[in-house]
Amino acid sequence: MNTNRREFLQLSALMGAGAMFMPSALWSAAKANETQRRLVLLFLDGGNDGLNTVVPFADDLYRKARPKIGLPIDKIIALNSTIGLNAQLSAWQSLFDDGKLSILQGVGYDRPNLSHFTSRDIWHSGLRESEERTSGWVGRCFEGQRGAGGLPPVAMGTSESPLLLKSQFSDGLTLTNLAKLRVEQPPEMPGGRLASGPLARIGKASQMAYETAAQLRAAAEKVPAGKGYPDTALGDRLRLAARLVRAENGPPVCWTKLGGFDTHALQAGTHSALLRQLGDATAAFQADLATDGTDENTLLLVYSEFGRRVFENGSGGTDHGTAGPMFAIGGGLKGGVHGANPNLENLQDGNLKMHTDFRSVFSEVLRDWMGWPSKNIFDGAFSKGDAQVGLIRGKA
Amino acid sequence: MLTPEEALEPYAPEMGHGPWTTSQVGHLLSRAIGGAKPGQIEELLKVGAAKALDFVFEPDQEMLEAAWMGIGEPLSVDDDRSKLAAWWMMKMVQDDRVTGTRLALFWHSHFATTWSKVADSEKMYRQHLLFLEKGSGSFEDLLLAMAKDPALLVFLDNDSNRKGIPNENLARELMELFALGEGHYSERDVQEAARALTGRTVDKGRYRFVDLHHDEQAKTVLNTTLHDGDDLVRTLVEQDECPKFLARKFWLFYVAPEINDDVLDLLASRWRENYLDINWLLQTILGSRAFYAPTSMGSLVKSPVDYVIGAMRALGGRPDPRELERSIAGMGQSLFEPPGVQGWKGGEAWIHTASWIERTRFAADVSAGSRDMLRKAPMTNLFPMRRRRVARTALEDLLRALVPSGLSAERHRALLVTLENLPTDNDARRFQSMAYAVLCLPEYHMS
């Protein structure tokens, strides 16, 4: 390191001078959890068309509602006599057959909101009843767990501080790639205290950035990058996620997203390409983790802010809808189809009715997968944290 | 606590409303035009609050034109996104007008349209010109024009919104994001509004209305019977919610992270009386007592654009525009590629691990003059050598340029002690290190 650079780094301490909100010891490794359960969340941004992802091909109403964009039988991989996967998800077929893929049908929430942004905030805050959505369910739950050591949850591929990871005390960690984390942690320096409010929070965030970035990089760089990923943006992110998952004392939760699902017009090509990217990258992720059994301790959850309208619009696309399928991939889950298939007859304003609240899925995952408390994390009836969808193997 | 009337009245130091010091001047320049250039603070300090406000609305045109020299025209139809974004960044570094290129940034985040979906440079450039041309006139005129803007029509799929087979995308965002805000319309309103917008399409890059594809039947939106898209826009603009929705957004961009309900009600009703003239709104809020209230000063987090152009303006640099563009993109703000139709969330959402590290990297590069950040005017030329040698005076100069509101006495002392103890006897290098320290202060990330 040249002198110039070192002086800079010493000075960097001033960015957060005096405002030591978060003793680094809290974040530093205490001891590794023996099992090191990991959760990876993948958000399909824009509202994924569930009916063209898990296709109710045996239902005449499906084809009636979608004369143009309805998938012909040769573009569907039948999973049973009633539903099948969009053939672009061919990589998921063997996962399904091996019990490593779960399809959770009809997930949504009460009084659906058709705004991307409000709906996204509902999913990420885990709050339906309250309009004050200033923190996320991962952030709130992790807050009670961080004493156990290790890194905070990480979000990849976001340009903004993610609501999902926010708590009263922390914002989680964001990451573009490991090389970009190349900054040294500045030495601590005594100095004037920052006024409270945003200024103090920025000071704290800067301090956090140095501490956690260095720690994350050190942990992840010890893990070699996995092989067999497709050369796509999502492939790159999941390859990185696999390194984070394997990192000792690494982040317990990793979040990333795949955008472009707001298919209002000419959706066939766009949606196909997205599902191809989704299926190939997630299958590669599972295959990578399975090489050393890490998949047994890793759960990948795929969700979107809403599904799309049952009836196609005139533009060869679909407008905003409500309930849709969620997906889970991993070696520790109960594979197969969970929950009733969509009822295309009993609609509300042209939209599917949900039967499984997303909070019950997340609640179970926190409790039965992560072993974290699920009580008082979500609102409404889900604050009890006892909801059960039967996703996790070896549990009720 | 000011009453709503007091909050909105013009800030007059001579009436005892408060001081007029470098802090206030720096605050005005930072919020209105992205920061002070060398000499501007001293100049505006002399002329007083009212004339300073005039300056940012009507800067010296000749100087401005001279400043444009050498930037060149941006566009041929095959220019890529980053080239146009780089050109825009340079314009913002130069521009001294409130209603110029930085206001266009406000509108870009409001009518957030992405290059990747529109996939046509010319349409994106024309939309940008529309913001420059109509962005400070009446909001109704702007919204009428936007509802016919080819880039927006393509972005929100209205080019395929036809009679009998409506597409709701534009209709929904017109209400939710452009005019009213979520919760002030029903799903039924969205469906009816979509019918009103049928037939609005794009042909050879220009707006075209196709009669045949327009649904002639009457529609009912927000209890109003109407027919076409212009009726719809006027109906939305007439809602009480419209000026409140927009005025709040302006307030959050220019004044403070929150607005008191009574102040908002008063501001919205006066803005309505002034025909939703955007220039009036900007004059009012940027000249108001609330704008200069201690709770407003330093209360906003700088966006990547503001962080970068602020440094460039203050340090008088003539950077490589491409480097500026790469910097803001890394920090999470790619111009012409907002993260979605809701634009950038802004505020504290700008600050997170990845973005902070990018900001630090930029600060280091600017200070060290690497990546051609200040190739035409190295920072060491901007500050007199005799002052640069002494930590105390060098810090004074840097803070005056970059953090005109200053630091708390305690913070100032702590910084000075650190700088005085820097382990180097190379003056130029010491000064670079000091500049780096100042650019990384949390105070400099706030405006």
How does this structure look, described?
- The complex is a heterodimer of chains A (396) and B (447).
- With 396 residues, chain A is α/β, with parallel strands linked by helices.
- Chain A is built from ten helices and twelve strands.
- Chain A has helices at 3-12, 24-27, 60-65, 91-97, 116-125, 137-143, 198-221, 233-246, 267-290, 358-370; strands at residues 38-45, 54-55, 76-78, 84-86, 101-108, 154-156, 173-175, 253-259, 298-304, 324-330, 336-338, 356-357.
- In chain A, strands 1, 5, 6, 7, 8, 9, 10, 11 and 12 form a nine-stranded mixed sheet that branches. A three-stranded antiparallel sheet of chain A has the order 2-4-3, with no helix packed on it.
- The termini of chain A are far apart.
- Mean pLDDT of chain A is 87; it is low at 1-34 and 185-189.
- Chain B is mainly alpha-helical.
- Chain B has 24 helices and four strands.
- In chain B, helix 2 packs across helix 3 and helix 12 (169-179) crosses helix 13 (187-196).
- A two-stranded antiparallel sheet of chain B has the order 1-2. In chain B, strands 3-4 form a two-stranded antiparallel sheet.
- The model of chain B has no long low-confidence stretch (mean pLDDT 90).
- Chain B starts with a helix and ends in an 8-residue tail after the last helix.
- In chain B, a hairpin with a 2-residue loop joins strand 1 (200-203) and strand 2.
- Chain B is globular and about 80 Å long.
- At the A-B interface, helix 1, helix 5, strand 7 and helix 7 of A face helix 12, helix 20, helix 23 and helix 24 of B.
Concise synopsis of the structure shown:
The complex is a heterodimer of chains A (396) and B (447). Helices cover 30% and strands 14% of the residues of chain A.
